[in-house]
Write a structure and sequence with these properties.
With about 230 residues, the protein is of the alpha+beta class. It has a domain of about 150 residues: Porin (Beta Barrel). It is built from two helices and ten strands. Strands 1, 2, 3, 4, 5, 6, 7, 8, 9 and 10 form a ten-stranded antiparallel β-sheet that branches. A hairpin with a 4-residue loop joins strand 6 and strand 7.
Length: about 230
């Protein structure tokens, strides 16, 4: 019986062929290269997934992704922008004003938007010059809208605080009623160049003993982008 068992084992080993206990040795350089390959495959998969998500304002999106960018002036769409302007007092050309700031737009209905502006100001005037900031609550109606341009009217009121009286003899806190007209031009990827002019009034509404007021013609330009 032992002899038969021994012969059976020998026969099976002969049919299985030769084998070795030695395993292939992977060098450190090959191991590092394998790890780099795995990391790159993971990174490529992540980037492929993220490319289909909107993680930034549309100004940074590929222009081919038109479906992700709302049509200009569409109800519910939002935009933001940068602007700057210059104004001159209609009563005295020695009184000038400059402003730089940012704007946000929310279209309540097609073509009609709430457009608050936050601006920094410099007032160069008879007497002491002044600097300050304003928050303006404006509304804009794009009564003519085309694919690449629009015409709008806007208006509203803001609050203004300055380092010195504006105008001279007035006060450091004022209200700023304003109204104007402007145009926008598409400059690619639904970004818009804006040019406009406004009547810009400065008054403390009688909150102080002196209220000389000031009326300026204010010309501005800027660029705004869709979210």
């Amino acid at each position: 019986m032992l002899l038969i068992t021994t012969l059976a084992i020998a026969s099976s080993l002969q049919g299985a062929g030769s084998f070795t206990l030695e395993q292939p040795v992977i060098s450190q350089q090959e191991r590092i290269q394998q790890q780099l390959d795995v990391a790159m495959e993971s990174l490529e998969a992540t980037l492929e997934t993220e490319s289909h998500l909107r993680i930034a304002p549309a100004m940074f999106q590929d222009s081919d992704d038109s479906a992700a960018i709302a049509t200009f002036g569409a109800e519910g769409s939002m935009r933001w922008g940068l602007l700057g302007g210059w104004g001159i007092d209609v009563k005295s050309d020695s009184n000038n004003e400059i402003a730089f700031g940012a704007t946000w737009q929310y279209f309540i209905v097609d073509g009609f938007a709430f457009t608050p502006e936050l601006k920094l100001w410099g007032f160069f005037q008879e007497g002491e010059d002044a600097f300050g900031g304003s928050l303006d609550f404006l509304f804009a109606w794009h009564f003519v809208m085309r694919d690449t341009w629009s015409v709008f009217v806007d208006g509203g009121v803001g609050i203004l605080g300055t380092t010195a009286n504006v105008p001279t003899g007035g006060s450091e806190f004022n209200f700023t009623p304003q109204a104007g007209v402007g145009v926008t031009f598409d400059i690619g990827n639904n970004n818009r160049w804006v040019v406009g002019v406004r009547w810009h009034h400065i008054s403390n509404a009688g909150l102080y003993s002196e209220n000389p007021g000031r009326d300026s013609v204010y010309v501005y330009t800027g660029i705004n982008f869709p979210f």
